[in-house]
Amino acid sequence: MQKKALITGVTGQDGSYLAELLLEKGYQVYGIQRRSSTPNSIRVDHLYDDEYNKNFITIYGDLGDSASIYRILQEVRPDEVYNLGAQSHVGVSFDVPEYTADITGLGSLRILEALRNLKLPARYYQASSSEMFGKVLATPQNLNTPFNPQSPYGASKMFAFYMTKVYRQSYGIFASNGILFNHESPRRGINFVTRKISLGLARVKLGIQKELRLGNLDSKRDWGYSKDYVEGIWRILQHHEADDFLLATGETRTVREFVEEVAKHLDMNIVWSGKGTEEQGIDYNTGQVIVAIDPAYFRPSEVDLLLGNSEKAREVLGWQPKVTFKALAQLMAEEDFKIAQAEVVAGKKINLSKYQIK
């Protein structure tokens, strides 16, 4: 019998890759799409083609609206629920903390409560985040490392993590957490630092943009590839019992290193000059300043280091990341250079939608 999956956040980076994966595995996939006055389905529009259109359905709903969650769950009656929906930008969470808590935190509770009251036997996946570790109390971080969030986003994710455990332990719901460390792709939103770097440097290379402005270059992150991580997400719900897992590469790199690696694939050789907010990245080949520091991009509370230990997921689920840091930077540089080239031809910055489907 064909399995049915429901994905919140289906129009996001992870949601779109997960939808593709599940469709390839023969699922019927339902995605909750938030109503917007401008198109927000650019990452999944290609799934409506002849190959998938019978098995891919989007439904309007909102994690802030319990009634829509109940209605959708009752109508679809999914076998698996993947809660990837959130206000997912850490920096923005400082500007809209209440909204972040409502959608990122309480949204998960609304789904769990609906599953309980409707008595649906669906397996539930909660997208947890390495931002819950915040100002880390141990390195590397594993499932026993205490949480210490430093943002409204991290705190909201921590609430969702514990509510998932509560509903698993109290009501017997098959509810699992996946703590995912940073994972990127050409589908990453352009306001996230990795995508800002790959697209920004491509635009600088082609003269569309004067320079790339960034915040803390020395923040360290454990960066992987989104397509590798959604494979892990699926494996978590296929495990014979509900449990919590952590997905990470086990390597940490600075924002500075990501800039350098992307630049290398654009034939730009960065040398650094100055200190603090006066630091600049200069292209050795041209003498042009291509990276500048902007204090506006510093967060009220910084997370300096994230490094995950995914030993449990590797041993129990057989999961492991395939795309290396260098390969990821190259992939994003190449894809965003294509966009920048198209912008040169168009003579202006263009709608990115048709370039975000790789």
TrEMBL record:
Alphabetized Pfam families for the sequence: GDP_Man_Dehyd
InterPro entries the record matches: GDP_Man_deHydtase, NAD(P)-bd_dom, NAD(P)-bd_dom_sf
Keywords of this entry: Lyase, NADP
Enzyme class: lyase
GO biological process, one term: 'de novo' GDP-L-fucose biosynthetic process
GO molecular function: GDP-mannose 4,6-dehydratase activity; NADP+ binding
Annotated residues for binding of NADP(+): 124
Entries under SUPFAM superfamilies matching the protein: NAD(P)-binding Rossmann-fold domains
The organism's place on the tree of life at top rank: Bacteria
Cofactor(s) needed by this chain: NADP(+)
Domain spans labelled NAD(P)-binding: 6-332
EC number of the protein: 4.2.1.47
Catalytic activity as recorded in UniProt: GDP-alpha-D-mannose = GDP-4-dehydro-alpha-D-rhamnose + H2O
Functional note: Catalyzes the conversion of GDP-D-mannose to GDP-4-dehydro-6-deoxy-D-mannose.
Entry's family note: Belongs to the NAD(P)-dependent epimerase/dehydratase family. GDP-mannose 4,6-dehydratase subfamily.
PANTHER family assigned: GDP-MANNOSE 4,6 DEHYDRATASE (PTHR43715:SF1), GDP-MANNOSE 4,6-DEHYDRATASE (PTHR43715)
Protein name according to UniProt: GDP-mannose 4,6-dehydratase
Lineage of origin: Bacteria, Candidatus Falkowiibacteriota
Gene name as annotated: gmd
